[in-house]
Amino acid sequence: MKRLSLLALAFAMTACETLPPPLPPVDDPEQAWKVRQHLLADTLPWSLTGRISIKTEDDSWQASLRWHESAGKYEIWLSGPLGQGTVQIEGSEQGAILRTDDEHYVAKNAETLLHEQLGWYIPVSGLHAWILGLPEPGMPARQEVDDRGRLSRLVQSGWEISYRKYMRVNDLELPRKVFLKNSRLDVRVVIDQWNLEQ
User: Fold this and answer.
1) How would residue 197 be classed by pLDDT, with cut points 50, 70 and 90?
2) Termini Cα distance of the chain
3) How far is CA 88 from CA 22, 79, 117, 159, in A?
4) CA distances from residue 17 to 5, 66, 106, 148 in whole angstroms, order as listed
5) Fewer Cβ atoms within 10 A, N terminus or C terminus of the chain?
6) Confidence band (pLDDT; 50, 70, 90) for 171?
7) In the chain, where the domains are located
């Protein structure tokens, strides 16, 4: 029993050592935020895995999430929404395709597809920036930055986005928990893993 306890302790210590420590507060958060925006703007291509939940006054659903973005194109996989198995969305400036296990649909953008097929308007065009911890370029925004120069709150395009937790990824801190809401929807994204293919 004692040996088992020592092994468990050693494993726990090893696991803790693999987690990079959080970055300390900075002297000038606003300047750090400016630098951070430039760094994050150059992160393509990237991918993530995690979970998403969407809630309205009348309904809610959850799904596993995989997202890959590269060179103006994105692929999103949602596993489990509305009991449909896997929903795959591919998109670019030219349009978007949504595929389920049995069908596929085409529209000018992912927002239209998700609204038509799943019943909710999810702001994919903004979310690809928000999920990195950035405002969507070219759109008015109100933002709050924390003591490390990271977004803590963003209001843009009718959505309020709050950043509840960050995680170290290489030399950056990227969002771990991103909560979005507007007058109709409450969307929560929890990211388990980031991959920056720099």
Assistant:
1) confident
2) 46
3) 34, 9, 12, 24
4) 18, 27, 47, 22
5) N
6) confident
7) 25-196
CA distance 189 to 180: 8
Rounded to whole angstroms, the Cα distance separating 25 from 90 reads 38
Q: Compute how many other C-beta atoms are within 10 angstroms of the C-beta atom of residue 72.
A: 10
Block residue for tokens 């468990």? 8
Please state whether 133 falls in left (phi above 0), alpha (psi between -120 and 50) or beta. Answer: left
Q: How many residues does the structure list for the chain?
A: 198
Beta bridge partner(s), residue 130: none
Among residues 74, 32, 44, 4, which one has the least CA distance to residue 173?
32
Distant-in-sequence, close-in-space partners of 2: CB < 8 Å, separation ≥ 6: none
Query: And the tokens for 178?
Result: 């991103």
pLDDT above 60 (res 57): yes
Superfamily, domain 25-196: Lipoprotein localisation LolA/LolB/LppX (2.50.20.10)
Tally of CB atoms within 10 A around 116: 12
Query: Torsions phi, psi of 150, nearest 5?
Result: -110, 150
Say what the alpha-carbon torsion angle 174, 123, 50, 198 is, to the nearest 10 degrees. -50
pLDDT band at 41 (very low <50, low <70, confident <90, very high): confident
